[in-house]
Amino acid sequence: MVNFKQVDIEKVKTVSLSRRKSKVKTEFFGRIYSSQDGCKFFECLPKFLKAEELIDFFKRVATAREKRLPFHILMGAHSIKVGLTPLLIDLMEQDIVTGLSLNSAGLIHDLELAFVGQTSEDVSSGLKDGSFGMAEQTGQMFADVVALAEIRSIGLGEAAGIYIDQKKAKYRKYSLFYSACSMGLPATVHIAIGTDIVAQQKNFRPGPAAEASYRDFKILANILINADKGGVVANVGSAVVLPEVFLKALTVARNLVKQKCSITTANFDMINHYRPITNVVKRPTEKGGRGFAFTGHHEIMLPLMAWGLKSYIKK
Fold first, then answer.
1. Which of 131, 150, 153, 152 is nearest to 142 (CA)?
2. Where are the domains of the chain?
3. Are 249 and 257 in contact (CB under 8 A)?
């Protein structure tokens, strides 16, 4: 039997608890929220981890807008399908959100909502008989927007806003593109050929569609020149297309204008994907600024974000 040597615990030196540096203090605890006591909800959140980061994000957006720098939102189509367009339109009207960038699914859902007040079909049932994505009106509206963009040499987003306005779409008040256009704000569309239902129909013209989307890419790159001066970009629910487009557009912006990198970025999504975390949150802020990642369902997180922004940005 081996008698292994043990340390002498009796010789261990202790320190006073009152003198020890502690990361958690009662002054940082959350407070009970009551609408009767005048306490603002966000002021009642605990000063830890994501709650503290969320407040920091709100303050950074507020600072950016005070300096007249952009707060630009990249967005997948899911936020449209869960009824969040009124909140985004309100943030644009309040001069908080200064522009939007969506994938082409976002444009498709926006067009359907603007003209018929409904969107999002049953993919599984339509796939079984080959009818998924074959709504004739949707394909024609998208084709008309592409044609208008080609005639005027403008981006898809601006063309969509003009088209919805010209046609006096019945539900246009719910359209992001119509609203942005009427307010003179940029709304860009970034397509990937073959990913959307319109590519299944005979009136889809990939060349002009890509050309119009490329104009939108250049518009986004120009926006990011100012955003890199201390502005904010948030990605909401796009896992691949917009994080990739954002990275390339930001590279173009930094290639054209040499300046201190001071952009704030944030990713809002239901789970953490590689590209948004890497291409939106981490890489763009390595030499300045800050990146945030917030996880939760869009139908909860986006209203929470809108509420917080309006609480911290005083008019």
1. 150
2. 49-312
3. no
The pTM of this model reads 0.90
Q: For residues 191 and 124, is the Cβ–Cβ distance under 8 A?
A: no
Q: Give the SS3 label for residue 58.
A: helix
Tokens describing residue 109:
């859902």
39-78 confidence digits (pLDDT tens): 588 888 889 999 999 999 999 999 999 999 999 999 999 9
Q: Which two tokens stand for residue 204?
A: 């889809």
DSSP character string of 138-194 = HHHHHHHHHHHHHHHT--HHHHHHHHHHHTT-TTGGG-HHHHHHHHT--EEEE--TT
Measured distance CA(179)–CA(100) in Å, rounded? 11
Taking only the tens place, the pLDDT of each residue in 262-305 is 999 999 999 999 999 999 999 999 999 999 999 999 999 999 99
> What is the topology classification, in CATH, of domain 49-312?
Deoxyhypusine Synthase (3.40.910)
CB–CB of 39/246 below 8 Å? no
Sign of the CA dihedral 14, 20, 21, 22?
A: positive
Beta bridge partners of 235: 74, 267
Nearest partner of 263 among 91, 106, 57, judged by Cα? 57
- Measured CA to CA, the distance from residue 178 to residue 191 in angstroms comes to 19
